[in-house]
Each structure stands twice: as structure tokens, then as C-alpha cells.
Amino acid sequence: MEIFKIAVTGNVGAGKTTFIRTISEIEVVDTERRTTDETASWKKTTTVAFDFGRLTLNSDQVVYIYGTPGQSRFDFMWDIIINQANAYVLLVAAHRPQDFRGARRILAFMNQRVQIPMVIGLTHMDCEGAWEEDDIALALGFKNLDNCPPIINVNADVPNSVAQCLITLLEQLIPVPVA
Ligand SMILES: Nc1nc2c(ncn2[C@@H]2O[C@H](COP(=O)(O)OP(=O)(O)O)[C@@H](O)[C@H]2O)c(=O)[nH]1
Ligand SMILES: [Mg+2]
To answer: Mind listing the pLDDT tens digit for each residue in 97-106?
Structure first.
């Protein structure tokens, strides 16, 4: 059995837990806890360990999906998760420009540790105040769009949308089409 390990990272509220719950065929281990710090005013729970999901592609291939915790005091978990991963998704909430700097920091953190395939998934594109894809790429530090990793719109609540994001990522890992 071939196992693909995918990490899902991004700021608090980007949609990581929802992304994994939407696509996983097993019940996602619930590591949500009541929020206690600066996030508490707008988000009641947050992920303290990591989310884990599983998706069987066929009789030979399975995807394990690991979500990183969002709050910075759990940063050590990122190291553990990213060093195991074959590829990762960076989720960015398109309507929350104040988080773009944090997303950029996550990218730098990842780039320092691993050189693996990745995609940027823009969530909340349906929300008021969502930025355009090109402007977000620029805000994330990609001045030349030719050097930019694949950027796709993802609604973490919609199974087809999450599946499309995973396919885009898996296509970079698997030479033959997975769909
Ligand atoms: N409107 C909208 N809501 C989304 C989208 N993606 C995720 N969400 C919602 O964003 C909220 C935060 O998601 P969550 O998975 O808890 O984020 P996490 O902190 O990254 O784990 C949830 O209520 C999701 O349903 C999207 O594309 N559009
Ligand atoms: Mg979460």
C-alpha cells in the first residue's frame, strides 16, 4: 500500500479542520478545544494537536491528511507534521488580508524545512472583501507569477472543491492522473 502524507496548514480560521472533515472517510479525531487567547473573540474552538483524516484512492493508494494547529504556541507540531509530509496545502482566507503576513511566515517556515510539492488554496472567496488571486499572490511575496506555486480556490465545506485541491496536489506526486 502506497501512502501519501499531505499536510494542511494555514492561519487560524483558514479552513484546515473543515477541509479535512469534508474529505475524510474516517471520523476526524477531535482535538478542538475552547479558545483561550486573542482568537477567543471570534472563534470558539481551535485545534490544539492536529487533525487527521484518511482518503482511500484505490486498493493500492491511500492519502493521510494532517492539519497543523493554527495558534503559534503549538508551532512545534508543525515541525513534526511537515517533516513527515510528501506535499502540503497552504490555506489562506481570501477575505482576511490581515492574515496574509502570517501566511507568508508559514510559507517561509515550510521553505526552510522542506522542498516538497505544494499548492495554495484560497478559501472564503465567496465572502465579502475577498481579495483577487493575483493580489493575494503578490501579498504572499510572489512578485513574478511564473514562480508561484499553483493557486486554487477552495471552499473547505464543499467536497468537490476539496477533492479538486487534493487532485492538483497529488498530480505533482503521482505521474498518472488520479481522477
Ligand atoms: N464561506 C466560507 N466559509 C468557509 C470556507 N472555508 C472554510 N469556511 C468556514 O470557515 C470556518 C473556519 O474553519 P476551520 O476549519 O475551523 O479553520 P481552521 O482554524 O483553519 O481549522 C468554518 O466555519 C468553515 O465552515 C469558504 O470557502 N467559504
Ligand atoms: Mg482547526
So the answer is: 999 999 999 9
- Rounded CA separation 156/67 (Å): 13
Residue type, 80: I
The domain that holds 24 is classified in CATH as 3.40.50.300
8 A C-beta contact, residue 156 and residue 19 = yes
pLDDT digits (tens, 9 = 90+) for 111-167: 999 999 999 999 999 999 999 999 999 999 998 888 899 999 999 999 999 999 999
Domain tally, the chain:
1
In this structure, which residue's CA is closest to atom 9 in ligand 1?
15
Shortest-distance atom of ligand 1 to CA 70: 19
Domain span at residue 138? 2-173
